[in-house]
TrEMBL record:
<dbReference type="Pfam" id="PF13560">
    <property type="entry name" value="HTH_31"/>
</dbReference>
<feature type="domain" description="HTH cro/C1-type">
    <location>
        <begin position="7"/>
        <end position="62"/>
    </location>
</feature>
<protein>
    <submittedName>
        <fullName>Helix-turn-helix domain-containing protein</fullName>
    </submittedName>
</protein>
<dbReference type="GO" id="GO:0003677">
    <property type="term" value="F:DNA binding"/>
</dbReference>
<dbReference type="InterPro" id="IPR010982">
    <property type="entry name" value="Lambda_DNA-bd_dom_sf"/>
</dbReference>
<dbReference type="InterPro" id="IPR001387">
    <property type="entry name" value="Cro/C1-type_HTH"/>
</dbReference>
Length: 93
């Protein structure tokens, strides 16, 4: 599932209207609607974090749905890849 439909599902599960939610994270309802419908790519990192905080969600899952690394890992991409590859190679044996 892409970020938009995923976050929409979480918002609806929380019982928060689109208008209330978008205003609480200081974004226009029209823009957030386009994100949720998959008409826009996942928003900038700060909006993903704000959305997660508003919904009480873990940010890691949101960044996975957005198909990008969490901000704290972006600067350590080489290390993250090497740790992942090491982990995967140990699981195969």
């Amino acid at each position: 599932m892409a970020f938009g439909p995923w976050i929409r599902s979480r918002r609806e599960e929380a019982g928060i209207s689109l208008k209330e939610f978008s205003r609480s994270i200081d974004i226009s309802p029209a823009y957030w609607s386009r994100i949720e419908r998959g008409l826009e790519l996942a928003p900038k990192n700060s909006l993903i974090i704000a959305a997660c905080e508003r919904l009480g969600l873990a940010t890691d899952r949101a960044f996975i749905e957005a198909a990008r690394l969490p901000p704290d890992m972006q600067g350590d991409l080489e290390l993250a890849i090497s740790v992942y590859r090491e982990f995967k190679s140990r699981r195969r044996t």
